Amino acid sequence: MYWTEFLTIAIAHLFAVASPGPDFVIVTRQSVTGGTRLGVWTSLGVGAGILVHVSYCILGVAILLSQSETLFNAMKYIAAAYLCYLGLQSIRASFHQVSTAENGSVTETSFKQAFWSGFLTNGLNPKATLFFLALFTVVIDINTPTFIQVIYGIYLAVATFIWFAFLSTVLGKPNVRQFMLQAGLWFERGMGIVLILLAVQIVLFA
User: Fold this and answer.
1) Which of 43, 87, 126, 179 could bond 165 through an S-S bridge, CB–CB 3.0 to 4.6 Å?
2) Is residue 5 part of a domain?
């Protein structure tokens, strides 16, 4: 009896994850500047961030967030500040002409940073909070067992990772990276500006 519910969740998630947003931008930037492996680690972080949303939805914290304007606004401003930080970092890197791709290797620390960038970008996104709140209060029946909801959550996290890992594989191809990096400094600056604009959008419209 849960297959219809699962199918609805899967379709809703497909449209949500394919829509351009902070996750898409951060994975694109990491894949193009650092290659497929860096993009995959970022994707892993994004997938882990999904588990944060799922966890507090199952625990009922999402309802508290939606009903407390103070808490929701705090989360919104933290998310915007973090995206601004990433955007400014990207712009600053362009002036120093730092590109991981040019070094030919990525350090372990870079992989950790990539994971946390993906995790925080997704985990702090208030729009993701609203999406999962709607999913777990409107789409998922209140009588659906908790272990079934956990299975839904694992699927959402894994599906998100697979989608962005696929995107990383495509964008991390040498010919694709070379094409996009031809813009050089302007690619980094463009990604930085997009991240800052997304931060503004979150503050004004989330």
Assistant:
1) 43
2) no
- The range of the structural domain enclosing residue 87 comes to 50-205
- Pick from 36, 53, 55, 52: nearest CA to 164: 36
d(Cα 193, Cα 165) in Å, to the nearest integer? Answer: 24
d(CA 92, CA 86): 10
Residues 69-111: pLDDT tens digits? 787 788 788 888 888 888 887 787 766 654 444 444 444 558 8
Reduce the DSSP state of residue 14 to 3 states and report it.
Answer: helix
Asked if 6 contacts 152 with a C-beta cutoff of 8 angstroms, the reply is yes
Q: Is residue 21 part of a domain?
A: no
| pTM value surpassing 0.85 | no
What is the phi-psi region of residue 7: left when phi exceeds 0, alpha when psi lies from -120 to 50, beta otherwise? alpha
Total structural domains in the chain?
1
Q: Please say whether the beta carbons of 44 and 163 come within 8 A.
A: no
For residue 110 the two structure tokens come to 């870079």
Q: What DSSP line would sit under 142-180, residue for residue?
A: TTS-HHHHHHHHHHHHHHHHHHHHHHHHHHTSHHHHHHH
> With contact defined as beta carbons under 8 Å apart, do 133 and 57 qualify?
yes
Q: How far apart are CA 67 and CA 201, in angstroms?
A: 21
Residue 173 has which token pair? 């191809």
Which DSSP category does 121 fall into?
H
In angstroms, the CA 25 to CA 86 distance is: 11
Contact present, 47 and 195 (Cβ < 8 Å):
no
